[in-house]
Amino acid sequence: MIPGVAESLPAPELMPDRVYTLPELRYPLRLNVGAELLDSNAEGGRAGRPAVLAGPRTLTYGELAKRVNQLCHGLRSMGLDRGDRVLLRLPNVPEFIVAWLACQKLGIVSVGTMPMLRARELAYIAADAGTRAAIVWGALREELERAQAQAPVLKRLVVAGEARPSDTTLAGLMTGESERFTAVDTERDELAMIAYTSGSTGVPKGCVHVHRDILASADSYARHVLAPSEEDRFGGHPTLAFTFGTGGLLVFPFRFGASTVLSGPFAPEAMLETFASQRVTLAFCAPTSYRLMLGVPDLTRRFDLGSLRLGVSAAEPLPAATWEAWRKTTGVELLDGIGSTEMFHIFVSSLPGRVRPGATGLPVTGYDCRVVDEAGREVAPGQPGLIAIKGPTGCKYWRKPDRQAEYVRFGGWNVTGDVYVRDADGYLVYQCRSDDMIVSGGYKIPGPEIEHVLDEHPAVAESAVVAAPDATRGFIVKAFVVLAAGRAPSAELVAELQEHVKRELAPYKYPRAVEFVERLPRTETGKIQRFVLRQADVIPWDPAKRA
Ligand code: 3UK
Questions:
Q1: CA 279, 280, 283 angle in degrees (round to 5)?
Q2: How far apart, in whole angstroms, are the C-alpha atoms of residue 501 and residue 518?
Q3: CA 50 to centroid of chain Cα atoms
Q4: What is d(CA 367, CA 221) in angstroms, rounded to the nearest whole number?
Q5: pLDDT, block means (10 residues), the chain with 547 residues
Q6: What are the φ/ψ torsions at residue 181 (nearest 5 degrees)?
Q7: Rounded distance from Cα 315 to ligand 1 centre (Å)
Q8: Contacts of 524 (CB under 8 A, 6+ apart)
Q9: pLDDT at 3
Q10: Distance CA 142, CA 154 (A)
């Protein structure tokens, strides 16, 4: 046990430098992650302790448990039960946490979706996961209602927040008498959640997590890197629907009886204000956000960050310059960590007091990590290769037998598509992506998905989308567009194409730069040479050739 860390279900004692599979952690086979995170606190002496802080609202573990239990009865009364999939479309509000925990206690598989997703993206997820019902935040209902037309499986909506008289509401489902609900004991490999990742080819993949592997992430990464106590307050901006947020703002705080601080959409000053006023101790943000916060004038004079003990940085690489600037300004150490939706959370991380700025860090206790070539052979230190990891969490896909087979082919190693170099001391240094995924401000944007949507526009003959370097966001989406016959480039057309993408896809995916070209560079076999476009060595648009 770590002193000061209270756990109902004891965390497995992990030896350093040894990889563990999930069975080797020896969790009871029949457990429920909802009960472990909620009931163990509410019934284990923490009923009066704060669980969720959101602006002026505070929910203690006792109050949270009461709401969750009432919702369990309410969802059952609607005919939803164990094994059903339910889509969640809510911002970071307490209702998200209530809904997620109720799903877990019932054995319902929660399918979190990012608030920015558009109808076609939501319809894909609803159809793929087979979600019969959704719990939706009133202000976010419109895109989901449009998605229903394309995904007939999604029949029922439960509305939280602002609702209409004819709606089935979350509050209405929580009016039952009974404030107790015994969580179902799940079977060994019973699903807890499906988290969708933007696949590099543009087809999202459902990553499956079972009840035990969610706890495993808390007991490996959070416990060994962050060593939380019940006094900690976890805060930050990642959406609860993204496993970075599900872990950092729900699973980890509750696993250690601590509190989570929820806040509205990210804005630099508002985030700093929340850190200061809610006395956040552990921050979870993307590097772009730390950089934007550093741009706030007089930040340390205006915001007292004295409670912050560590900042976790993930979703994209943390440059040494950002690490140093944050440390110099705030005195707080940032811990870079690479995680993924497949792995649930971080598997290679910097450690407090042992940070090497510019390096992601070392494998998290419980995980093993290699840098390999295309054939899976380990490369020498100092040589670039694909990062491959193994541990208690990892690649389990929802109805994607090909991907599953690939995972097996790699002998249980998870290959994320990131190129790394391991230095002589074992520190892992991020280089780049090995595919067409664009990482911008921590968002994952598959180039081919944007091309597909651009090509639907009548002014576009064809397009190619790549990552272009950007001082704030790391990279931005840049589109090279060949126009349809009779169309000419203009600033208005750039804006129109950008609006088209924002309407069809989550707005963060839109191309911030658009360049019109005569043709796209291709190989002899006709494949677009994106590396040429990345070097911007392109054939410019030439009206003379267009006559
Ligand atoms: C990239 C990083 C360099 C990398 C995530 C923490 O980002 C998360 O999950 P996604 O599925 O994307 C995974 C990909 O993101 N990446 C993430 N962290 C870093 N690249 N340095 C980093 N520190 O390309 C990776 O393959 O969206 C992050 C926890 C949970 C998560 N789901």
A1: 160
A2: 22
A3: 25
A4: 9
A5: 52 94 92 96 96 97 98 97 98 98 98 96 97 98 97 97 98 92 92 90 90 97 98 98 97 98 97 98 97 96 98 96 97 98 97 97 97 92 94 89 73 90 95 91 93 96 93 93 94 98 96 94 82 71 58
A6: -155, 125
A7: 4
A8: none
A9: 37
A10: 14
Residues 6+ apart with CB under 8 A from 199: 205, 446
SS3 content of the chain, % helix, strand, coil (to 5): 30, 25, 40
Q: What are the backbone angles phi and psi of residue 242, rounded to the nearest 5°?
A: -100, 135
Identify how many contiguous H helices and E strands the chain contains and give both numbers. 18, 26
| pLDDT at res. 176 | 85
Task: Please state, in angstroms and rounded to a whole number, the distance separating the CA atoms of residues 134 and 119.
Answer: 14
- Hey, which of 205, 316, 346, 389 would you mutate to test ligand 1's pocket, going by the most ligand atoms within 8 Å of its Cβ? 316
Domains with residue ranges and CATH for the chain? 6-422 (3.40.50.12780), 437-546 (3.30.300.30)
Residue 203 main-chain phi, psi, to 5 deg: -100, 115
Radius of gyration of the chain (CA): 23
- Please answer whether residues 206 and 399 qualify as being in contact, where contact means their C-beta atoms are separated by less than 8 angstroms: yes
Residue 154 to residue 71: CA distance in whole angstroms: 20
Q: Whose CA is nearest to atom 9 of ligand 1?
A: 340
